[in-house]
């Protein structure tokens, strides 16, 4: 039981050291992720179209 109380106490101390992101940081990270995912998806779509048309012309 003593170890459990010590664990909970240590956990609270460690949680006080955590720096949580602000709403502005979360918004900026979200926008960056959406942009990167969109660019990668467009690139892969372009590669797919090129490969498909190339393969279709060969066959």
UniProtKB/TrEMBL annotation:
Question: How does this protein sit in the membrane?
Answer: Single-pass membrane protein
Keyword check for Transmembrane helix: yes
Q: Which domain of life is it from?
A: Bacteria
One of the record's GO molecular function terms: protein transmembrane transporter activity
A GO CC term attached to the entry: plasma membrane
Q: Where in the cell is it found?
A: Cell membrane; Membrane
Per the UniProt record, which residue ranges are transmembrane?
29-51
Alphabetized UniProt keyword annotations? Cell membrane, Membrane, Protein transport, Translocation, Transmembrane, Transmembrane helix, Transport
One GO biological-process annotation of the entry reads: protein transport by the Sec complex
Q: Where is the signal peptide?
A: none
Instruction: Extract the InterPro entries matched here.
Output: SecE_bac, SecE_sf, Translocase_SecE/Sec61-g
Subunit structure, as described in the record: Component of the Sec protein translocase complex. Heterotrimer consisting of SecY, SecE and SecG subunits. The heterotrimers can form oligomers, although 1 heterotrimer is thought to be able to translocate proteins. Interacts with the ribosome. Interacts with SecDF, and other proteins may be involved. Interacts with SecA.
State the function annotated in the UniProt record: Essential subunit of the Sec protein translocation channel SecYEG. Clamps together the 2 halves of SecY. May contact the channel plug during translocation.
What NCBIfam families does the annotation carry? secE_bact (TIGR00964)
The entry assigns this protein to a family as follows:
Belongs to the SecE/SEC61-gamma family.
Please state what the protein is called.
Protein translocase subunit SecE
Give the species: Campylobacter corcagiensis
């Amino acid at each position: 039981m003593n170890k459990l109380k010590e664990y909970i106490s240590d956990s609270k101390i460690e949680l006080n050291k955590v720096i949580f992101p602000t709403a502005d940081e979360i918004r900026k990270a979200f926008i960056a992720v959406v942009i990167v995912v969109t660019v990668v998806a467009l690139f892969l779509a372009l590669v797919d179209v090129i490969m498909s048309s190339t393969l279709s012309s060969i066959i």
